[in-house]
Amino acid sequence: MNQMTRERKSWGEALRPYLEREPVGALLLGLSSGAPFAMIAATLTTRLAEDGIAKSTVTAFALTFLFYNFKFLWAPIIDKARLPLLADAIGQRRAWLVVIAACVIAALVWMGQVNPVANIEMMVAAALAVAFFGATFDIVIDAFRIESLRPDQLGAGSGMSQYGWRLGSAGAGALALIVADRAGWNMAYTAAAMFALPAVAAGFLLGEPARRTAALALEAAQPFGHRVRTAFIAPLADFMTRPNAILVLLFVIVHKLGDTLANLSLRLLLADLGFSKDSIAAYDVGFGLIATLVGIFVGGLVYARLGMMKAVMLGLILMAVSNLSFAWLATMGASNWALAATVGFENFASGVGGVAVVAYLSWLCDLRFTATQFALLSAMASILGRFVSGTSAGMLIETLGFFNFYLLTTVLALPGVLLFWLLMRREAPVPETADIDA
Fold first, then answer.
1. Domain residue ranges in the chain
2. Cα(97)–Cα(87) distance, rounded to whole angstroms?
3. Which of 121, 157, 310, 392 has the greatest number of C-beta atoms within 10 Å?
4. What single string gives the DSSP state of each residue in 292-333?
5. What is the distance between the alpha carbons of residues 170 and 108, in angstroms, rounded to a whole number?
6. What is the rounded average pLDDT of the residues 196-213?
7. How far apart are CA 229 and CA 65, in angstroms?
8. Pairwise pLDDT comparison (288 vs 135), residue with the higher score
9. What is the pTM (predicted TM-score) of this model?
10. H-helix segments, 364-393
């Protein structure tokens, strides 16, 4: 009986951090963060492939994601600028949440109105608008999450953020496919646009971040020139003075190359193999979501048990190996069970790795420059993969075939594993409870 009581207490203690107000808010923020990304990723790929757009044109749309990679360029504005009247009424961070959420909704509704066959140029413009406002939404959301979480909530908060991102991405993607099949893409994008609202709800649940408010009060007394330097120069200068800064940035740039190439091309493979939209919604979106949620839960346990650095290494290895499952699927044809197995393993691996990697990137941020530094790190994490996807992925697939292409993505994941191994050997041990103020 005593053993059972201890086990129940242990599970209760493990789950309690996920039920606190701040991690729940991180879940809501993640819901909104994932939706715009899904609309210009897998969902747009499915739509364009269905309309018979050439593979090289479809993969070129991956270049719209470069807004996510260069968001650090305007992140200092989000960090420092106050929106007149609204910021005075509800606070700087919450004001940006409300305004950018409205912009995301408007851009998604616009993209749903465009016919890509009749006007591919207008579709490009709409996709760019969604990407820009989606990336800006991420700046605000990431900063709000990091500033709202206490240091001891970083692991749970990162896990809940990953849950939210996956639920928002998969939920918006599945909803769009289901509505599109019954009412057209116009209604599909309008319905998916409503996923921008949970972030606004999180803003009012959590309130303006108290630690951020204190930091702004200290900055307000500084001269204007000093504040400009603080906004645009100090975040990078601060990061570059840290030990192993160049090695960290190199790792961040290359570690997702193989994973990004594989995932951005998956819907092309599914269209080529002949899967229906209902099968894609059920297995790639629905079953994949379940596998991701399990992976995130396991990732949280691994993070707590092994610590941050070992958890990141395990996640990187799993994500590299999971690319082999795409190559296997390419040989199986339109088999639903093979799709479920492939998506299940890949999403489980991404869930495990995502918790630790997001926590690691958050831990690297100085609270004075949260939006800018996290924007820089998260942008660098996928810039190479998205650039290669937009310029070369379609050509590589047509030249190599899907099987060899996915073998290549597996090989491209290995440098990230090696670089992180070097970081583990060189960096001082990370505290068991990572403090983002450090």
1. 17-426
2. 10
3. 157
4. HHHHHHHHHHHHHHH-HHHHHHHHHHHHHHHHHHHHHHHTT-
5. 16
6. 82
7. 28
8. 135
9. 0.66
10. 370-380, 383-388
Residue type, 216: L
Q: Are 367 and 436 in contact (CB under 8 A)?
A: yes
Which residues lie closer than 8 Å to 16 by C-beta, 6 or more apart? Answer: none
pLDDT for res 234: 66
CA distance 17 to 216: 28
With tokens 């939706």, the residue in question is 35
Q: Given pLDDT bands bounded at 50, 70 and 90, which one contains residue 360?
A: confident
DSSP state of 73: G
Spell out the residues 6+ positions from residue 165 whose beta carbon is closer than 8 angstroms to its own. Answer: 30, 31, 33, 34
Interval 46-81: pLDDT, tens: 788 777 776 667 767 777 877 887 887 888 888 777
What is the arithmetic mean of pLDDT over 78-106?
Answer: 88
Residue partners of 186: CB distance under 8 A and separation at least 6? 112, 113
Closest CA to 47 of 105, 100, 120, 99: 120
CA angle 63, 64, 66 (to 5 degrees): 70
| pLDDT confidence of residue 123 | 87
DSSP 3-state assignment of 416? helix
Closest CA to 162 of 289, 341, 260: 289
255 vs 382: CA distance, rounded Å: 8
CA-closest candidate to residue 98, choices 109, 113, 120, 83: 83
User: Which CATH number is correct for 17-426, 1.10.3260.10, 2.40.50.140, 3.40.50.300, 1.20.1250.20?
Assistant: 1.20.1250.20
Please answer whether residues 112 and 187 qualify as being in contact, where contact means their C-beta atoms are separated by less than 8 angstroms: yes
Q: How far is Cα 195 from Cα 390, in angstroms, rounded to an integer?
A: 26
- The Cα 246–Cα 240 span in angstroms is 7
Which residue do the tokens 């100085």 mark?
Answer: 366
Distance CA 275, CA 264 (A): 17
Backbone Cα Rg of the chain: 21
What amino acid occupies position 125? A
Q: Is the pLDDT of residue 9 over 50?
A: no
